[in-house]
Amino acid sequence: MSVYAAYSHIANNLGAPPFLPLNRDRVGDVPLVNLTGGVPAADILPYESYSQAVGRVLGNPATAFSSVSYVSPFGIQELREQVAHWRGVPVENVLVTNGAMNGIFLAAQTLIDPGDTVLVESPTFPFALNIFRRAGARLESIALHAGGIDLDELEQRLREGRRYKLFYTIPDFQNPAGTLTSAEHKSRLLALADRYGFAVIADNPYRELWFDHEPDGFPDDYRHAERYSPLYEIGTFSKTLGPGWRVGWTIASSDVVQRMSVIRACVDGNSTALGQYAISCLLQEPYWFDRLLEAERALYRGRAQALVSALRTGFGDAVAFDEPRGGFFLWLGLPQGIRIDDPHVQDALARQNVLVTRGDSFAPEQPGRDPAHRDYADHVRIGFSALPERDLREGADRLAAALIGLA
Amino acid sequence: MSVYAAYSHIANNLGAPPFLPLNRDRVGDVPLVNLTGGVPAADILPYESYSQAVGRVLGNPATAFSSVSYVSPFGIQELREQVAHWRGVPVENVLVTNGAMNGIFLAAQTLIDPGDTVLVESPTFPFALNIFRRAGARLESIALHAGGIDLDELEQRLREGRRYKLFYTIPDFQNPAGTLTSAEHKSRLLALADRYGFAVIADNPYRELWFDHEPDGFPDDYRHAERYSPLYEIGTFSKTLGPGWRVGWTIASSDVVQRMSVIRACVDGNSTALGQYAISCLLQEPYWFDRLLEAERALYRGRAQALVSALRTGFGDAVAFDEPRGGFFLWLGLPQGIRIDDPHVQDALARQNVLVTRGDSFAPEQPGRDPAHRDYADHVRIGFSALPERDLREGADRLAAALIGLA
């Protein structure tokens, strides 16, 4: 390597890709069924409304120039107010970000110094792990159960003197495990954060996409903090309006929001103005967003049910999973003895031309680092949001054909 | 401060705002003339074309979903190819970024470890200084002259054993000083970078907005590097199509582009897809961008000339400046003995209700750190891009009325 290409420590230690690749080629001429996606359904997004909103913003002399000019690093005031009103917080607590990922990054920058310990759920979203590692954090994990992590175990660790700079959680329709936490759980978690001095980054991209019941919220006294609160709530329009807008938000103390906005002035200045104005224009139309959300919930509920029923038909009792109650994913425990890191298993899936996301992609530990720890190679994540029910049934059938009797 | 609000070192050391505020209120009832802007002229941007392009992208089944979905962290292929073709480099050397600022940030992340020394021009763009400081860099500066820094002085420093991780330069229509560097200067700079092992971040947001002659380029053998080259060329559509799109680019070695794209996967994933598709759609129309650039060059040339002539009328020989040859700014040396950090001077400007950007905003040294060094309080930056010629003349008249005879 040339001397002038001497990279930074960060650039020289980029790590493995967050999602482990399936290392076998697929065979055969049947069309692929791709169950890896974490994207909205292409057939439900209202492109015509999007186009009209952009047209209105650019056709209105009051917004045309602003929508293609520099805007506040906090986000445009109209959109901040709409998010604040919708999420039930004061506007000073809302920062507009380039998607939820950018919220996690900026939160990490406000909190993490090299050597700080970040506690994460196991399994969890691997892109967040990358962000924390890149910021120089040491990672520690705590197992996820139905209903969230075991808060008794967390309290025990804290009582024993273990300290964390922050706890990263995906509180509702967790990615990949689909777990949902209750109001009591959220409240007790924040009380622990308050008492033992750690921040809580609550990454909640799927929150609006519930099937039967809206998830419980965090207690208001942590969400309306004028100065300091441990809570950083991260949301996004990526799963409801589309990730290509790159418009998300973070709800945090006004002081945190202030600092995050100054940091972003050294990252990219501000989020796209045109996207913010267009989304704000759409949200102004009474009930427009509510109606879209209702349609999306119905669509994803139907798709989840089709997948669940096909998996039960194909596998019977051979697999274990919780039925999704929202979000985009089903976390499938494979039949006894089957591991996704086994080349024979990968061969069998390739022969069926069906793609799923490897469970070990979501393990917080580096492979081989701690053999006592769960590696989740006995799980796969199935994304049901992007495919019609017919394809989901086909995918479930092929998974069963590949895996039943393989162990 | 609560223990859980313990911020990172970064968040606790956010520093002064990059532009020093004028600390006097303005008085009187005459309308403000604001000469601080670095934004395109609101009356030349083609909002109708923008709206149509977004409509075409969202109305086309081949692009509708992609334009609101996740896209490659490198940028969409169509736009990368268009930028590559236009700028005369292979597509592998092009990364799409969230504006030029994001390119500087990502370049800094690939290069800087805490303690590295970054060399900058004096004066220079303060937001870049913030990015380098935030990455933990020590800053050293080298004085800018007409035609760029003195490369003999740079070579002398290098021969004496001083070493830099990177040199940050704004090669054409420098912000704030307006200097332009020649092909020979660019070539010799890169030869020094090659020989002494430092990277060159060439931030060039104003490059396309020349008045009479297109600026010289960097030598092709540094711009087509398949693996390693010291050159990171940063460009943007912010000054030509509007900053609100948040679409810029970095041209660098394919290996650098690869690493920058992986880093951005931990910052925000990717740039806005809709903006990329819309701009790509606009660039497809033959001569559309060329015609817009021609109109912009003519408009800004006329505005610069109006400002220059009004300053000469108002000040005579009392001020010193080079006539702008492109870009958005005029760097005005104030009349002998007048300093912008003098409250009487600020009062005089406030009474005239005219705003300019303080020259000391562009000094690389922290105030008071090195008294031997230039602080540029004897300069102001005047932005001429955003105001009609009438307002520029009015602004120049008011500046003269405020400052003549004040020393």
Automatic annotation (TrEMBL), chains A, B:
InterPro entries documented for this protein: Aminotransferase_I/II_large, Class-I_PLP-dep_aminotransf, PyrdxlP-dep_Trfase, PyrdxlP-dep_Trfase_major, PyrdxlP-dep_Trfase_small
Q: Do the record's keywords include Transferase?
A: yes
- Known cofactor(s): pyridoxal 5'-phosphate
Q: Which domain of life is it from?
A: Bacteria
Q: Which GO terms describe its biological process?
A: alpha-amino acid metabolic process
Q: Which Pfam families match?
A: Aminotran_1_2 (PF00155)
Q: Does the keyword Transcription regulation apply?
A: no
Q: Which GO terms describe its molecular function?
A: pyridoxal phosphate binding; transaminase activity
Residues forming the Aminotransferase class I/classII large domain are 69-399
Query: Which keywords annotate this record?
Result: Aminotransferase, Pyridoxal phosphate, Transferase
Q: Which PANTHER family match?
A: AMINOTRANSFERASE, KYNURENINE_ALPHA-AMINOADIPATE AMINOTRANSFERASE, MITOCHONDRIAL
Record-given protein name: PLP-dependent aminotransferase family protein
Q: Which species is this record about?
A: Bifidobacterium reuteri
